[in-house]
Every structure is written in C-alpha cells, then in structure tokens.
Specification:
Layout lengths: L3 E7 L3 E8 L3 E7 L7 E18 L3 E5 L5 E2 L6 E5 L21 E5 L3 E16 L3
Antiparallel strand pairs: 1-2, 2-9, 3-8, 4-7, 4-9, 5-6, 5-8
C-alpha cells in the first residue's frame, strides 16, 4: 500500500508534510526533494520535527535516499513527537552518502495497522532561498 501525503507548507526554509498509511511499506517515497519550492539539482533536507500516531504494535523508520540508503536512527511508534526538546536536535543526512537524492523514504512494519504523521523538514542546501 502506498503512502498518502499532503504538503502543508513549502517556503524558503522549510517544508511541512502530512502523511498516512496502513503498514507493510518498504522504503516508500515520503518526500521528493526535487519537487520542493526553489530546489536545485542537489537538494538536501534535515528532519526538524515529527508528530506521530502509529497504531498497532510496530514502528516506522525513515531513510535518506542514496545508493545505500541511510537509516535515520530514531524510529517512531505509538503517539508522540520528536524535535521539540533541547535533547532532540534536527537529524541531518551524513556527508558520506553516495549519490544522495535528497528524498526521504519511509518503511512501516507489518504490525502497524495505520499511521498519521506530520513532519517538518528544514532546507539545508541545494535551494535558491530568495
């Protein structure tokens, strides 16, 4: 099953998306960075905030897309948020990825019955900001 996404904001410095799905997804496209406002040929974003409601007993995992995708080490389950506390810094793509696309992928375990997330990404580089 594919992810349903809606862009809530896309300005010079950030993009906010809302997404939902039903589980058993493997590296589905969550964010296509090349389609963001003012993206150049090599856009790069970081994960600043996420609000999540994951139903079932499983978790979701996000990845930075590249030849060898980079798994974001923080996984999400249940209801909660990330990025609002001082101890939760924005999550950056590593600098040693081979051919990164700037895209963000999502996988969900088969024990996830459904999920809703709102994610704020920051535009780090590869954008003409004004």
């Amino acid at each position: 099953m594919s992810i349903t996404t809606t862009t809530l904001a896309d300005d010079d410095f950030k993009v906010i998306i809302k997404a939902s799905g039903v589980g058993s997804e493997t590296k589905e496209l969550l964010l296509d960075a090349s389609k963001l406002s003012k993206a150049t040929s090599s856009p790069n974003v970081s994960l600043a905030h996420i609000y999540h409601e994951i139903l079932g007993t499983g978790k979701i995992t996000l990845f930075f897309d590249a030849v060898d995708d980079e798994e974001i080490t923080t996984t999400f389950s249940g209801r909660g948020n990330y990025g609002l506390k001082k101890s939760e810094p924005k999550i950056l793509q590593s600098t040693d990825l081979v051919n990164p696309t700037g895209d963000i992928l999502l996988s969900s375990e088969s024990t996830v019955t459904s999920y809703n997330i709102i994610v704020e990404f920051r535009k780090e580089k590869g954008f003409t900001n004004g």
